[in-house]
Each structure stands twice: as structure tokens, then as C-alpha cells.
Amino acid sequence: MAVLFFFRLSELSVKLALRNLRPFLVLFLLTFFFHAVFTDGKILWKVPFVSVFITEEGIYQAIFYTFRIGILVVLASLLTLTTSPMSLTDGIERFLTPFRRMGVPAHEIAMMFSISLRFIPILIDETERIRKAQVSRGGCFEGNIFRRIRSIVPVVVPLFLSTFRRANDLALAMDARCYRGGVARTSYHVLRFHREDILALLVVILLGIPVVFLR
């Protein structure tokens, strides 16, 4: 109910959240299968020809953890759809700022998070470009699972090389602009807590307390 309320509050369609679950369908199936099979309990069904048993407790655990991962994916998609990468980076840095006295590199962690977010779409485009190039050279990405695994190698190796090259270019560009980590830096937009932020934090705490005590 809380997730539906958040989607309603952000004026996003629930269908969009369900559509974002499709790429993780294999993960959901594997999670359900492993919990249903490898959890001890009352045996409900034996898989023919193999010593594999599906238990009642395993079904409960499979449903619980599959649903839990689904909620995590939906909330992550909600966060990325409603918040820009720069806002996420600034928020992480602002949140970690009080821990600087304990030696936590707040700015460096926020910088790595920002770079990671910016590299994701670049890597996706690079992967698609390499795949099309391999197909134009006669590469085949269809067939049984073993053939597909072998066809991944000609994509992964150039992708790693391209990633290292881009990372090296980024490091040289940051060094050319005299970027130095660990130095106190200022921000053009200074984040401050407002009444809406305190209210949102209280709502999250109130929703989190029942989750902790009703596990």
C-alpha cells in the first residue's frame, strides 16, 4: 500500500512500475525456485527422476523473498524516475557530510556514485553498438544456452576494453581540470532541510518501524 501511495504521490502510472519488472523476470524465477527447493520442511511434491523436493515452507519463503525483491526493484525505479542523478549525488553527499569527522569520504563516495550513474547508459549504448558490429561480422546470438554464452565473449572483451579506455580518459580530464579528492569543495546549490523533507523522513521512519518489529 505504501508503494502504491508513493506512485500516486509522484503522479506515475503503476503500469510503468510493472513494466520495469520485466527485465528481472529471470531473477524472480531463480529466487522462487531456489527457495522452494532448498528450504527444509513439509514435502509437498517430489520432482520426478531427481532427488529434489518442494516443501511448504519453501513455497512461503519463495513467495516472500520474490515479493521483497520486486518491491525493491519498484522502489529503485521510482527513485530514478522522480530524482535526477545530480540530485541523488547531492543528497548522498549531504547525508554523509556529518560522518566526515569519522573519516568517511562523503564527497568521494558521492562522486563515484555520480560517475557510476552516468556510465550506465553509456555502457548500454556501447554494448548495443558492439553487438550490432559482431552481428554484421557474422556473429550469432541465438541458439541454445551454451551457444549464447560463447557468443557473449566477443561482446564482453571489447566492452571491458572500451570501459577502461573511457575511465582512463575521464581520469585524465579530471586531472587536467585540477580535481583533487579529499579537498573541501563548495557547491553552487546548497541543500538545506525544509519542512517537506522532515515530514518525508518521519513518514519513512513510521513505515520502517513496523517492518523491523513485524519481521
Sequence stretches where pLDDT stays below 50 over 5 or more residues: none
Judged by helices, strands and strand pairing, the structural class is mainly alpha
Widest sheet: strand order?
1-2
Helix content: 55-70%
Q: Round the Cα radius of gyration to an integer and report it.
A: 23 Å
Mean pLDDT: 78
Number of strands: 2
- Please work out how many helical segments DSSP would assign: 8
Task: Briefly summarize what is shown.
This protein is mainly α and 215 residues long.
Structure description:
The model has no long low-confidence stretch (mean pLDDT 78). The protein has eight helices and two strands, in the order αααββααααα. Strand 1 and strand 2 form a beta hairpin. The protein has two domains: 1-82, no CATH class; 106-215, no CATH class. It starts with a helix and ends with a helix. It has a two-stranded antiparallel ribbon with strand order 1-2. The radius of gyration is 23 Å and the shape is extended. 69% of the residues lie in helices and 4% in strands. With 215 residues, the protein is mainly α.
